Amino acid sequence: MRVLHEHVAGIDVHKDMIKVAIRSPGEKPWTRQTEIFEYRTFYGVLQAMARDLRRRVVTHVVMEASGIYTDPVYYALCEQDFTEVAVVNPAHVKALRGHKTDAADCRRLAELFECGLLRGSYIPPAELREVRA
User: How much is the pTM?
Assistant: First the structure.
C-alpha cells in the first residue's frame, strides 16, 4: 500500500498507561520502521509524550476512542502542532489477527492510518465543548 503520511504515531489508550507506536521511513529504501514506547497517563507525562512525538518529527497521530480515557491524551496532543490528531471509532479498525497485545494494537493503528485507511471522528472545538457541557 502507498504511504500517505511518512511519520505517524498510533496510540493504544488504557486507564493507567498508553502504548505509542511511531512509524517512520526505514534505513533502506521502501522500508518502514516501528518504535514502541509506554507512558503513564498523568497529564504532565502525556504533555511530555506529545513533545517527544514532535521531536521525533511525527506529523499525524491516531488513537481509538476509549471513552473518558481518550480525552486527556487528545488534549495533550492538541497542545502541540500536529498536522492531524485523529480519534477513530474502534468498530472501524479491523480486528487484529493472532495474539492481541497493546503493542500490536498501536502498531496496527499507525499502519492503517499512514496509508489513509482510517478517518477520525468529529470532535468539537473547545468553544463548542464548553457550550455543550
Answer: 0.86
